[in-house]
Amino acid sequence: MKKTTLLFGLIFTFFIGAINLSYAQQKKGMSSQAKGAIIGGGAGAVAGTIIGHNVKGAVIGGAIGAGGGYIIGNEARRKKEKKERAYYKAHHTRKQYYRKYGTYN
Predict the structure, then answer these.
(1) How far apart are CA 2 and CA 96, in angstroms?
(2) What is the 3-state secondary structure (H, E, C) of the chain?
(3) What pTM, to 2 d.p., does this model score?
(4) pLDDT in tens, the chain (105 residues)
């Protein structure tokens, strides 16, 4: 049990470190969906390990957490885009809006 928890902790730390290194090399950040999936997957794996007391519980918890985190991240992205479109629509002409988004609705 302790070895499994330690192993998942090390793997999670490795992935977070790799994400930070790749983030430093890129100018563009991670998407909201990716952030949500990583955070949800890590939290789900930890919760699955604690609840299930084995690797199977950690894998199931990680998968469910990653899926839920992706959905939450996607909704956050859509909400942000909706606000940006509304602002752009209110402060720019119809022609400028159409050029940027391709449709006016």
Answers:
(1) 59
(2) CHHHHHHHHHHHHHHHHHHHHHHHHCCCCCCHHHHHHHHHHHHHHHHHHHHHCCHHHHHHHHHHHHHHHHHHHHHHHHHHHHHHHHHHHHHCCHHHHHHHHCCCC
(3) 0.60
(4) 667 776 666 676 666 666 655 555 555 678 888 888 888 888 888 888 888 888 888 888 888 889 999 999 999 989 998 888 888 878 777 777 777 777 766
